[in-house]
Write a structure and sequence with these properties.
single chain, alpha/beta, 6-stranded parallel beta sheet, 7 helices, 48% helix
Length: 209
């Protein structure tokens, strides 16, 4: 039997020297994840459409003794996503962890959705995730390691009225995760999805306020 050591357990969660990119880190789950990654030693790059929010999260981390900086990004823009990834790599040399969270939940029954509303939800939730995973995946393939964490939802499995389009995007992210995991495994890259329940964040404000 292997000798027991607390240090072995510590090392499982030790992210010292790692670069973690959190997109959507200015609020909600992304912010909490940024705090957690930094607490375990990672240098956290907090990226968000709301640059002020990203700056506040990064400032919180630094005030607590962690390491972080902040950048702005719009994940509906391929050019901005690619530029963000290039900038992170230029500064830190690599990306070890990616978590991407941006999403929109327009609570309307399917028959009342307009084409424009459908396109906007798909473009942010599903295609935005794709843009980020593609850009970071390419970098991690060069490194031959890394961890990609995508954000699904309980709505991928349990749908209520007014949630069908949002749920479709989150289900799609689940399938994207499975596909990426099989495609990137040979490069030493792990790909996982998190499927939260109802958590008090700006996204759920319409139903929790």
């Amino acid at each position: 039997m292997a000798e027991f050591s607390l240090d072995k357990y510590k090392r499982l969660f030790d992210l010292s020297g790692r670069i973690a990119l959190v997109i959507g880190g200015g609020s909600g789950i992304g912010q909490a994840a940024s705090y957690g990654l930094a607490a375990h030693g990672a240098h956290c790059v907090v990226a968000d459409l709301a640059a002020d929010n990203a700056q506040r999260t990064a400032a919180d981390i630094r005030a607590g003794g962690g390491s972080a900086d902040a950048l702005a990004v719009d994940v509906t823009s391929t050019a901005e996503v690619d530029a963000l990834v290039a900038q992170v790599v230029e500064r830190g040399g690599r990306i070890d962890v990616l978590l991407t969270t941006p999403a929109r939940n327009l609570r309307k029954r399917l028959v009342n959705y307009t084409d424009e509303e459908f396109d906007s939800v798909i473009d942010l939730n599903l295609k935005g995730t794709f843009r980020v995973a593609r850009a970071v995946g390419k970098q991690m393939m060069l490194q031959k390691n890394g961890s990609i964490i995508l954000m699904s939802s309980m709505r991928a499995y349990s749908v209520e009225p007014g949630q069908s389009i949002y749920a479709s995007t989150k289900s799609g992210i689940g399938q994207m995760t499975k596909g990426l995991a099989t495609e990137l495994a040979e490069y030493g890259i792990r790909v996982n999805a998190v499927a939260p329940g109802i958590i008090e964040t700006p996204l759920t404000a319409p139903i929790t306020s």
